[in-house]
C-alpha cells in the first residue's frame, strides 16, 4: 500500500521540472494525480507517461480555479492534496531593484503569489467537505536571503512563506482539518534552473559550464538536487505521516542554508 494510496492530488505546473518530479513520486505512492499546466502538449505527454491525468489550467485565473476544483470534486469526489508548484523565475529579464520593470514585477508575483493564494483559497472549502487535506506550497531558499539580481522572484517566494503560515494557522483555528506547509528547494536541476544558469552566464559574459561549476561550489553536498528529491519532501507533508505538521518550511537544498 502506497503512502498516499487513493488520495486525490493536484499538482500545478506539473508538465515538467519540479512539478513532474513531484507528480512522479505521488503517483508511485498510489495517489490519483492530476497535473495542471498551460503547456498542454508537454502536460499531456507527461500525464500519459506517468499514467495520471492532465488539465490545462491558468493558476492566475480565479474562474479557472473554480472550474478545475469543481470538476475534480464532481469527477473524483473531492481533493486531498494540493501542491501549488506553478511558478516562473523571470530568468533572462532584469530583476534588480533599480532596473526591473513594474510589468515584470507584477507578472512574477501574479503567478508565484496570486496563483498560490487562489489555490489555497479555493482548495480549503473543497478539502473541508472531505474532512481535511494537505496543501503544500513551493517556495524557495531565495525567500530567506537577499536576491539582488532576482529581487522579484525572491520577494514573490517570500510572500509564499508568509501566506503558508497564515493559511496553516487559519485552518488549524477553524478546525477545517486542512494542513498547509511549504517546501523550499535549493539548486534543483530543472529547465527553469538551466535557464537561470544561462541567463547568469549571459549577464556575466561567461561560459554556462563555468557558471554551473560556481553554483555547485556553493552546495555543501557538492551536487544539484533532482525534482524527485523535492517530490519526496512533498510526499511526507502530503501523507498522514505528517498529520500533526502544519505551518512549517521544509528546506531541500543540499545544506546551502545550514
Beta content: 5-15%
Helical content stands at: 40-55%
Assign the CATH topology.
Rossmann fold
Reported for the largest beta sheet, the result is:
7 strands, parallel
The fourth-level CATH homologous superfamily is NAD(P)-binding Rossmann-like Domain
The CATH architecture can be given as 3-Layer(aba) Sandwich
End-to-end separation in angstroms reads 35 Å
CA radius of gyration: 18 Å
The order of strands across the largest sheet is: 3-2-1-4-5-6-7
Round the mean pLDDT to the nearest integer and report it.
95
State the domain count: 1
Q: Encode the helix/strand succession as letters.
A: EHEHEHEHEHEHHHE
Total beta strand runs? 7
CATH C-level: Alpha Beta
What are the key terms here?
single chain; alpha/beta; 8 helices; Rossmann fold; 7-stranded parallel β-sheet; 258 residues
